[in-house]
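can u pls check wat happens w/ zinc ion
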Amino acid sequence: MGPSQADLRAFALDVPKAELHVHIEGTLEPELMFELARRNDVALPYRTVDEARAAYRFTDLQSFLDVYYRSCGVLLTESDFYDLGRAYLERAAAQGVRHAEIFFDPQTHTDRGVPLGTVMAGLRRALDDGASLGTSAQLILCFLRHLPEERAQATLSQALAYREDFVGVGLDSSEVGFPPSGFARVFARARAEGLHVVAHAGEEGPPDYIWQALDLLGAERIDHGVRCLEDDGLVRHLAAQQVPLTVCPLSNVRLRVVDSLADHPLGVLLDHGLLASVHSDDPAYFGGYAGDNYADAAAALDLDAAAVARLARNSFTGSFLERAAVQRHLEDVDASLRRLTGPLVGEGGPGEAPGAPGTLRP
Ligand code: ADE
Ligand code: ZN
């Protein structure tokens, strides 16, 4: 008999995992938003935390971004960014996140007059302190694609003063009408600086944006990427190259990319042999952190423990950690699965033929 639904849910919540797709600004819970609004004397469009949560009903990506950018108005001081980062890491660590590669949107803050140094100092301190929680963390600087490439270039120029504090660059914000092709020069410059490259593509935008992100930006990972399924040649390419796709099931439901979790194509992506993993995107707005996304997706899509463990492995394989660290995390995932199910294939269970470790015994 396999594990109960409750055991599977606990496993999905706890299994060691890497969070590769979370926007730190999207982790601003209404409680902290109100606290910072009071601290900084900033007006909010809501009277209470409950009223804020009730207003988080979105019809598409843009309807969410309008709320998200407005909420960022409470973030002003180094302590604000520290508190935001610290709160995120505590929540993530409690859901099995052992490593996080965290997006931040500098332009959202510098355009409001908050110095980049304030943002960097607060987040850096939070990440350094977070190490005691057992979660390593790195930053990825995202350019806002609804703004011109020259503004991204200026942001990169400024950010290079903090080169040691971030490991890569990404591309986010409103997707449709803002193709990756418009950012080829700034990404080439980032690559020349030795930075990793990721890009949101194929969330609302067409498969061609995924091709552009790969071919014109040199993206090593695609954030979302679910619309790749509309292009068979692209699916073959992503599978052959094992390009990581950082998929965000609860986000896709809340932003109406899919109708419901039961309709989510996560299982189809895995069936095609893609290196898909599961992440939270903007957990304060979408109803769950990394573990919640694993648990809810597993329940809605009837994923078994082996599939959940595969998602966790994919998250480490798709990370920018070095090989030895990835290997250690993969062993931890296997140990976690073993505690749930007993010996894995290839581990010499009774009468077992040799097989690949990390898969469930039949
Ligand atoms: N910024 C924050 N969340 C985002 C998302 N889901 N897509 C694009 N940009 C974002
Ligand atoms: Zn995102």
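Residues 36 and 80 are 7 Å apart (CA to CA).
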